[in-house]
Amino acid sequence: MTLRLSSPLDMHIHFRDEEMLKLVAPLTAKTFSGALIMPNLVPPITTKEALLSYIKRIKEATKEQADFEAFVTLFFQADYSYEFLEDIKDSIIGIKLYPAGVTTNSETGVSSMDINVLRPTLESMSKLGIPLCVHGETNGFVMDREKEFMPIYESIASAFPDLTIIMEHITTKAAVDLLDKYPNLYATITLQHLIITLDDVAGGMLKPHLFCKPIAKRPEDRDALLHLAISGHPKVMFGSDSAPHPKHKKEACGCAAGVFTAPIALQVLAQIFEDNNALDNLDKFISLNARKIYKFTPIEKTITLIKKDFSVPSSYDGFNQTVVPMFANESIPWSLK
Ligand SMILES: [Zn+2]
User: Which residues are catalytic?
Assistant: First the structure.
């Protein structure tokens, strides 16, 4: 049995920089037609100069794959001028908003989610048609952070009805329930949040390679996400949030947050959709919906999967980096042709 995927897209991924970028970017470029790259480098991307130079480094790292396009984002600042955004608009696909300190390299994110503080930039984005990507978590109790953020999504969505807002990597039924309440709200879902709950992370022996932000939640949350994804709902897209960290930073006291799924994402998604008799909706989740939400035509690229066991390696190595993927040392039923 084979499966032909037309221009798959990963609408939320971390490529990092330098050696890590060189190791992980080609893995995505090989199997996806395009990917939305997050801007939380150190320091984050907040200037045109930094953006253009990052684009150059990504192009260099993926030069073997001409049939791949990287869509870059800017790191949200509340005081971007209209002129600056107008000038940079054609180089970016969106702007990513991080509340300060909620995840990896977000220390310089916005310190207040007060709509009046965010208003200048949001107003310009709305006028210029630049989508807003949001890491929607408060600094509250870890299991409640996303749910507590819902009123903030509501206030932005109602104050800026023309602004496209993407609730990134949603993990709760609360976010699923909010999605259809505002026409300008959209969402991405990761691979791991369709599969695991907090039990898989910390219910037995601690699994550092499954630790991510937002943390995986309850079974009813996971089930709501799964139901939404396999339904082909037009407002939801695949965004792996594949977030590589060196092995020694995951298997450490003070484990970095992030699950590395890039090289196995499509194969495992095929399995999930097949198990749920939803293969007809897979193209919507991994490509068609994103094209409509972000209004672009991706590079034409067909990825063929075959129903053949694939042994996931214990790690991906290169450029002095070692990164452990999800399902390391396990066998998955679909392979890349
Ligand atoms: Zn992310």
Answer: 241
Distance 214 CA to ligand 1 centre (A): 9
Burial (CB count within 10 angstroms: exposed 0-12, middle 13-18, buried 19+), residue 144: middle
201 within 8 A of 279, measured Cβ to Cβ: no
Query: What distance in angstroms lies between residue 95's CA and the mean position of ligand 1's atoms?
Result: 13
Instruction: Report which DSSP code applies to 279.
Output: G
CA distances from 45 to 79, 184, 240 (A): 14, 25, 21
**Mean pLDDT over residues 127-147, rounded?**
97
User: How remote is the CA of residue 1 from the centroid of ligand 1, in Å?
Assistant: 33
Over range 106-135, report the average pLDDT: 93
Written as one string, the DSSP assignment of 105-130 is T-TTSBS---HHHHHHHHHHHHHHT-
Q: Is the pLDDT of residue 112 over 90?
A: no
Distance 2 CA to ligand 1 centre (A): 31
105 has a pLDDT exceeding 90: no
Nearest to 261 by CA among 298, 286, 231, 235: 286
CA nearest neighbour of 261 among 333, 327, 331: 327
Q: What token pair was written down for 27?
A: 């893995």
Report how far residue 5's alpha carbon sits from residue 14's, in angstroms, rounded to the nearest whole number. Answer: 22
- Neighbouring residues of the ion ligand 1, judged by CB less than 5 Å: 241
Among 30, 24, 114, 37, smallest CA distance to 72 is for 37
Domains of the chain are: 2-336 (3.20.20.140)
Spatial separation of the C-alpha atoms in residues 1 and 140, rounded to whole Å: 47
